[in-house]
Amino acid sequence: MRRFMTFALLLILLFQAQAQAKEKDEDFRDNHNVAGFFASLNAYGSDPGYSLGLSYAYYPIQYMGIGATMSYQRWDVGDIVNHEVQTKGDIYTLDDDEDKVEKLILTVAPCLRTPSLRVSKREDMRLFLQAEPGIMLNVLPNDNLTYVCQRVEGQPGKWVQRLLYAKNHGGQQFSWLFRPSLNLGIDTGIISLGCTLSGFDPYSSRRNVTAGNVKVSEGGREHKVCAEVFASLAIAF
Question: How far is 221 from 50, CA to CA, in rounded Å?
Fold first, then answer.
């Protein structure tokens, strides 16, 4: 419910800003700031994931700016680490909540626009291309995992739950990215469709997991490129 309310508030603010700009007879080319939100479908090899995020860019000149995004990524995977670990005669099972990889990603990149082309009788409905070569920062490069063991202890017997904590080491923190997009400007609004290619490895946060002196990581699949297809809605102000 909280996410829905935040999403609704963003929509209201964007449309309100667009309405105010329209009254002033402005379009996206007249403004230096662009803020928006986006959603994407991700693929690392054949493994699917998704991202939700916010973006901001500042354009000191019409065709060049600097931008940043903050996004939440989720990957539903279950075979990156061992599901069972045996230590001191007990068998610990990976907690059910650990069968997903969640990331918080910050990107910073220059924003390079082409001149826009009018696509209707309206002067303020224009099409342009944009490219963003930059870097990604994985805010949480190493995952902490929990394993659970239940056993009977005491007389009379009673079920006791024990926990085993595991942590990854040496996860990837920085990566390159390249983000081209096709953009439609309508008044001060901008609708974008594009893709992101990067060297980001979402599983690096679980490639070197140890619990005490026991290594529990299986390594998982490894690919050179991570891909995203995204759609975004933004407002220039």
Answer: 18
